[in-house]
Amino acid sequence: MAQMWITMGPQHPMTHGLWTLRVKVDGETVVDTEAELGYIHRGVEKIAESRDFTQITPYCDRLCYVSAMTWANSYIYAAEDLLEVEVPERAEYIRLISAECQRLASHLMWLGAYGPDIGSLTLMTWCMRDREMFLDLLQELGGSRMHYNYPRVGGVKRDIPVGFADRLIAKVKLFEHRIDEYEMMLDESTIWLVRLQGVGYAKAEDMVNAGVSGPNIRAAGVNYDVRWAHPYSVYDQVDWEPAVEKPTSVKGADCYDRYRVRMEEMRQSCRMILDAIEKIPGGKNTNYANGDEMILAKAPTRAPEGASGFSNYECTRGASQFYIQGGGDGRGKNPYRLSIRSPMFITIPYVAKTMIGYKVADIPAIMGSFDPCIGETDR
Amino acid sequence: MGMRITNEQADTAAQSAVSAINDRFGGSDVSATVEHHANAYKMAFVRAQVPPQHWTAVAKYLRFDLGVNYCSMVTGTHYPEGGPERGWEVAYHFMRQPVIDQAPHTNTVHVAEALKGDAIPLEFEIIVTLPQTESPSVPSVQNIWVGADWNEKETWDLVGIQFEGHDNMHRVLNPHDSPEGFHPLQKQHKIRYHDFNEMYDDAQGFGRKPTDEGRVK
Q: Which chain B residues have a beta carbon less than 8 Å from that of A88?
């Protein structure tokens, strides 16, 4: 039979968003692929050039609707590099806790969306149930379920409310047991193992050379995490260790390794949150007023021309980076140029090429295991 | 307990990388310096100014001698008022990640504080400045880092900087049928409401002036 091109997307359950995967098939086997992106390009980088440094935060929330908090934090660290701001330690702890809650919510969203890809609809309902716990917690901080606009240049918008710590601890401890439940359900399911094991191999060296980052390379045995390698926040003061998986084949990590590493990462996030909430300076049940120097430092609003700021941040899908050049607008209140590096923008073209040689039915399993998010990809 | 690369480790690594670059390319216009971030832990990183004619040589040196194995981002910037010497700028961000070829059932477990020499993760910011011209171009490093491939596509698509020798260049974020020569991040293109006051003058905007108009904060 002749080879032919099939277009999967932009509307296809495999895509987890709006993009197109063009697949050349020979019977059931994938022989070539091409990724097409850009369906929801919103031009955030251009818009940011005419906005103040504080006005940009909500746009960064909307870069990725599944992990808004980490993206806003990522931008804030770049702005703080540019404006040379010292952040109070309590604010750094609150940022850590909020980012790790977001990581839990995002990984649950990933697992919930990955389940139906493999054929387990139950998984989605379970994950959505647990994700709601963390969205409730984040809502207490930011006032909204998805787009929080919570971090500020120099700190955070408001302090943790009274009673937040107790609710956080109770929910995280409950969720630690829920992770065991998920593992009991998945690791002993034959369908889950058959669909994931031995599918979608990716080698550590190839992935690093191609620019893949985050859990996807840690699944291949590479202990590289921005949280310790290019440190920010207070990750060196709380109890955790990077989640790294041992791949079982010379061909690298398969989909099962990538699933395992995210489960382990959720455990580590729980561990971090429980430790951080006890160590938070100023006490876990204190509520400082908005703008108090414990949670928000004074920050300049203008950046000199020629100055630049850069942040490297461990987002839920990999290393997100912002590069800001100051001195726009003639007065320095806007960035002259703001550039965003999205981990998924680099990963998706790479993943498309790893599918070559597998069957068409493996495409959703491979693509889903890399956790694509198109909001950040297209910016 | 959590761990992190200490400031001394980053300083040492950045210092040795800078002296290596300056030794190798001394006499040309390549100049590298150790810089420090102003945020969080004030970590050291390497910043280098590289003229476009030496960029390929420097890139190969970084990749194969200094072990810089990770291309993070490529940023193009347009400076229409930057003078004849500086019309465009391409800023590359690279990371050095300590990665070794993986045998099965192993992982590279690091104790961050114990890493030494080239195994210390380090950040590189390479700035290539281009003169004022209608058609800016730099050599492509697509063959040196696979990760530079889509970064360069994006930079050409949005900013309009040509990458000589880039294979399979095409639009990635803009539509495929965008007009030739249309690169939205060039500074002659203004978005609507570029200046916040424009919004108030527009009938489709607020249609009224703010009460504190004229008082610039």
A: none
